[in-house]
Design a protein that fits this description.
The chain is mostly helical and 376 residues long. The protein is 66% helix and 10% strand. It is built from 14 helices and 7 strands. Strands 1-5-4 form a 3-stranded antiparallel sheet. α2 packs across α10 and α3 runs parallel beside α8. The radius of gyration is 22 Å and the shape is globular.
Length: 376
């Protein structure tokens, strides 16, 4: 981990805890927290091997419609069912999800202080009579008919035993150690719903989202951002749905920033306003890394994100009304990156960059290397 990454992690931790002891301007807190979260997530997304699962153009086009259906469904649930009942069910769901996300976020730091065999030797639990009939899209389906999550999380495997599929849970001792603070914070959040516990879980979701999700190409990224640009404008400006769900949804899907105003005790920033632009900025960083150059396009995309977020805060305070952050962030991120690559004459290599092809070629090289070793 580089010094700049350590400083970003320390800065993010300090900024999260600061409102407990000093008054922090909520506008400044929103900007710095979001930018540091994107920065940390982007550098964590740089892996030795490219991601094998990337988003396609079709998925990017479909995403705003799926998001709209989910948002409207939540709105209707809160409208026709008890708010306490809906939030109780969602709390149970986010309790489990939060443990996994926070454990995966803390794991790289914890692994350095544990014995190597705690990190490398897996423990497997088998459930031969438990049958799976559904697959989760975030898992990787391999040729040997196994299904596994990333190495930073618990590993779930689909195995074929006598023609029947059974569940295997594979994990390491270091993952168990990392799950202890994750369980503590989730239990704290479920019992107290404290804003700090909410923010810690929300930051873990953001960092994991930016780290694990891959757009694959800038074309796919532009399609996704353009679709969510329209999505955000429609649901915020033309309907009460987005604001109503954000206020009713008592779960870590937004960051809360304490204010001095008793009438409005918290400023809010949705996790989507961090993760969605963040995965695009992370793609720019991996593009720079793939070319063996300094983070030039990452810098322009990151500055675009910071600028868009600042404009959002300024407009929100000017009109004293909720604003769709992607309305300002999306044009800024894409505009800064486009202007920079046009200036450098790198439009063609940027548009041709495709992580799925890079992953396929790297896996082919690994297979060739293994086969050559066997021949020797």
């Amino acid at each position: 981990m580089k010094n700049c990454e350590r400083l970003a992690n320390l800065g993010l931790a300090g900024l999260t805890l600061a409102p407990l002891v000093v008054n922090v301007d909520p506008n400044l807190n929103v900007i710095l927290t979001a930018c540091l979260t994107v920065y940390v997530g982007c550098y964590r997304s740089v892996k030795p091997t490219p991601p094998s699962e990337t988003m396609s153009n079709e998925h990017a086009m479909r995403f705003p419609f799926v998001g709209s259906a989910m948002l409207l469904s939540l709105f209707l649930l809160f409208k026709f069912l008890s708010k306490d009942l809906v939030n109780a069910v969602l709390t149970c769901y986010f309790f489990v999800l939060g443990i996994i996300a926070l454990s995966a976020t803390l794991l790289p730091a914890i692994k350095r202080y544990l014995p190597n065999h705690w990190n490398d030797d897996p423990i497997t639990w088998k459930f031969p009579y438990f049958r799976w009939k559904m697959a989760f899209c975030s898992f990787l389906i391999r040729e040997d008919k196994t299904m596994s999550a990333c190495k930073e999380c618990l590993h779930f495997h689909m195995c074929c035993l006598n023609g029947n599929r059974s569940l295997e849970i594979e994990f390491t001792r270091s993952q168990i150690v990392a799950a202890i603070p994750g369980t503590f914070f989730c239990a704290w959040y479920a019992s107290q719903k404290h804003w700090l516990a909410n923010n810690i879980l929300g930051l873990a979701f953001c960092i994991q989202g930016i780290e694990m999700l891959s757009l694959g190409s800038f074309n796919t990224g532009a399609i996704l951002l353009a679709g969510l640009f329209v999505y955000d404008i429609f649901w915020v400006f033309f309907t009460p749905v987005m604001v109503s769900v954000a206020k009713s949804f008592d779960a870590p899907i937004k960051l809360l920033f304490p204010t001095a105003d008793s009438a409005r005790p918290f400023s809010m920033l949705g996790l989507g306003d961090i993760v969605i632009p963040g995965i695009f900025v992370a793609l720019a960083l991996r593009f720079d890394v793939s070319r063996g150059k300094k983070s030039q396009y990452f810098t322009s995309a990151f500055l675009g994100y910071a600028t868009g977020l600042i404009v959002t805060i300024v407009v929100m305070n000017w009109f004293q009304a909720a604003q769709p952050a992607l309305l300002y962030i999306v044009p800024a991120v894409i505009g800064f990156l486009a202007a920079h690559c046009i200036w450098n004459g790198d439009v063609k290599p940027l548009l041709e960059f495709d992580e799925s092809k890079t992953a396929a070629s790297s896996s082919k090289d690994e297979d060739d290397a293994k086969s050559s070793k066997k021949v020797e």
